[in-house]
TrEMBL record:
Source organism per UniProt: Kibdelosporangium aridum
Taxonomic classification: Bacteria, Bacillati, Actinomycetota, Actinomycetes, Pseudonocardiales
Coiled coil: none
Domain ABM: 7-63
Keyword Oxidoreductase part of the UniProt annotation: yes
MF term (GO), any: monooxygenase activity
Name by which UniProt lists this protein: Antibiotic biosynthesis monooxygenase
Amino acid sequence: MLLVCGFTVPDSDSAEFSAQATRAVELLTAQPGCVRAVIGRSADEPDQWAMTVEFTSVVAYRRAMSPFDVREHVIPFLSRGNASAYEILATATDGQADQRTSVVAADAATAGPRDASGPATPRA
């Protein structure tokens, strides 16, 4: 599971933002199942920042977001940007790719919480 968040930060706020981002990744990487976190700043547009955080699974991601200190500091921090969560389907190291099988259900785009025990009426 990969959390990707982009931020637009005026240069005058960059020192405070950097401190908040560092605190956010410290809190997240202290959680079980958090593999790594990276904070970056665009070399071309210095007001553009990005943060990526990798988790071992969706469950690890959800649990990492649960502790009080994470909800108090990380969630408000992430709300400053544009965050999305992604399923990791391939990684590569030293020229070797490792593909993963998707764990997203085939009907994920059409099924909802109301379908937890199965659809009330069969889908065509």
